[in-house]
Amino acid sequence: MKPQQHPGILHQYAPRHVAFEHLPSAQWKESHKDILIFVGGLSDGLLTVPYIPHLARSLENFSVAETLLSSSYSGFGTSDLEQDTHELAQCVTYFSELRPDAKIVLMGHSTGCQDIMHYLTSPGQRPKINGAIMQAGISDREAFDTLDDPDHIKKGVDVARRYVREGRGNDVIPDYLTNMVFAAPVSAKRWLSLISPGPEHAGEDDYFSSDLDDERLKGTFGTIGKTGTPMLILFSGNDPHVPKHVDKQLLLNRWVRHIKEGGGVVDQNTAVIPGASHTLKELGQPMNDIFARVNSFLERIK
């Protein structure tokens, strides 16, 4: 992508934390009242997800604000979902106080979807939101299973478990154990959270694996209804990070079933999107399909 300007407003929603609100075009001097707060995946930051400026221009009544969290860029390896959701709560509070009548929706991409799940389902009080969108939520554990050297992953797990036993869970494990996967320092606790090793697969980040049983899904997706937050789930049909043995539609159907059985609302635009890659980097029809679904969902929110 060639260098370019992006008109918008930089908001400092907490000390050392900012969100960039895109304006629909350079000609616009004011943003929309309602706000879609976007959180990216591992190693993402401002403007690293290629479709976001296009999404901002496509939305009819919502502005898009990209958040910077402690876990942004290379910070993900030494942060966790609890820290992310605390900072997202600060961001939601900021915009709700700035625009008291605004509708606020959270949208996660990739590991940002884990933040959405954690925001809605983990213990603790957080500001209410009007809706949530998950785009390309995948299992990090299953994505790592596709790597060529599972023994190398296991070595990292063994070292990380030892660090935790020794009370050193926040310490960074040696980079030769992690650099085949991540170009960032990773703590023992975050490595175990993302890899979520068996047999218990208890990693905090492990929301989306296809082998999780119904009891596990009931305790996560099945509790979303208690928040009263309508959901839109967009699963990329051509996501290279999803193993070939995973039936995407079947997996999505299980998530939807548990949300509904728990009294939650799943938008009719929830779907596996044909041809869509993980980041929609090819743009084109799959991206336009997703944007139409997001716009339709947001119109119902209003």
Keywords:
302 residues; alpha/beta; eight-stranded mixed β-sheet; 9 helices
How are strands sequenced across the largest beta sheet? Answer: 1-2-4-3-5-6-7-8
- Portion of residues in beta strands equals 5-15%
The main pleated sheet reads as: 8 strands, mixed
Give the beta-strand count. Answer: 8
What form results from the Cα inertia axes? globular
- What string, H for helix and E for strand, traces the elements in order? EEEHEHEHEHHHHEHEH
Report the span from N to C terminus.
Answer: 34 Å
Oligomer: single chain
Task: Indicate the structural class.
Answer: alpha/beta
Overall pLDDT metric: 94
Low-confidence stretches: none
**Cα-atom radius of gyration:** 19 Å
Helix content percent band: 25-40%
Helical segment count: 9
Organism: Heterodermia speciosa
Protein name: DUF1749-domain-containing protein
Pfam families: DUF1749
